[in-house]
Amino acid sequence: MKLRVLVLAAVLTIPSFAHADGSVDITLSQEGMDLADSLGITVAELEADTEAQIDEAYTVNRIDDFLRAFADATAFSSRGIGVDYASNGEGLMFGVTANVAAAVGDLGQDEQGADRPVAGVAPNFALMGGLNFKKWKKPALTVYANLFYRSGEWSGLNGSITTFGAHAQYKLFSPTEGKKSVVFKWGGLDLTAGVELSRWGFGLDAGDRIPTQNMPVEGPNGTTEIDLVSTGRFDLDSSGVVVPFEATTSLRFLYFFSLYGGASFALQAGNSKVDAELEGTLTATDPQNGDAVDMGTAAITVDGQSGPSVGRVTFLGGLQINIWKLKTFVQANFMPVRAASVAFGLRVVL
Q1: Domain residue spans of the chain
Q2: Which band of pLDDT confidence, cut at 50, 70 and 90, is reported for residue 330?
Q3: Which pTM value belongs to this model?
Q4: I want to staple 329 with a disulfide (CB 3.0 to 4.6 A). Which of 103, 213, 217, 320 is the partner?
Q5: HEC profile for the chain?
Q6: pLDDT of residue 272
């Protein structure tokens, strides 16, 4: 699996700091040199084409985009998983939520011209709880907390994900009351602010391998696909602190269906870094006779870090199904041009 799939959701402003460096070195065996003849290209051309394919697969020349996206995604994958925007509860609530975020990389000049833009996905989960203060004669105020920790394997790497969030929600206008609220209920205008903390830390264990497959190299006499199996050190770590400010509202129809939406702005801070030193074996197929070819070896080094984007306006919207105290919902979060995520889950509102 190509490591560029580790790049996650992102936002579209300049990071606070960044440095990055990387290299790919190819050493061809005699069989690898003979493969160049079978393809009808020079040895130097085969080396250059192979290096370019590995560079693209590991995002070596665009590691700053990789890290910026990864730092932003650490925050964006937590959006919409710790707050209830539609239930208008008057007591306790608790639930479980999942979020899947997807994003493209930095939309600067280099990224627009890339054959394969930096892109990826980021899953997240949370256990959440909330408390409305009606019992203390403050029905406009609700507080929330969410937490998630998971260790295990992700995209061939081993490590853990930790997220925590705390939010306060204040309702400016009272929701629709009385019998008419069964048919149609406006939920008022909610202002929500809080803090979201997250950390992703994954690495390659000793003895584990990273396969990178089907990298095409063409020549006048045919085409071959190169496979690379790498071992060594690969550490990827990202931590983020997000302070979101949200304004949302909701409408409930015939009691069972609720629609909600709004906009938000988030301040972000944190750090994303990668440190990799890998050695791998290259194999291919001779286009002339179909024989397997032991091409040689590849050495890959990547080192860099980057901060997340400062902030960006995002939009959210969702549909909730109300079955007495059980609420099930699906929610979309969208950052124009750059990123989107979908959250879904169950809540019990008492």
Answers
A1: 3-349
A2: very high
A3: 0.79
A4: 320
A5: CCHHHHCCCCCCCCECCEEEEEEEEEEECHHHHHHHHHHCCCHHHHHHHHHHHHHHHHCCCCHHHHHHHHHHHHHHCCCCCCCCCCCCCCCEEEEEEEEEEEEECCCCHHHHCCCCCCEEEEEEEEEEEEEEEHHHCEEEEEEEEEEEEEEEEECCEEEEEEEEEEEEEEECCCCCCCCHHHHEEEEEEEEEEEEEEEEEEEECCCCCCEEEEEEEEEECCEEEEEEEEEEEEEEEEEEEEEEEEEEEEEEEECCCEEEEEEEEEEEEEEEEEEEEEEEEEEEEECCCCCCEEEEEEEEEEEEEEECCECCCEEEEEEEEEEECCEEEEEEEEEECCCEEEEEEEEEEEC
A6: 80
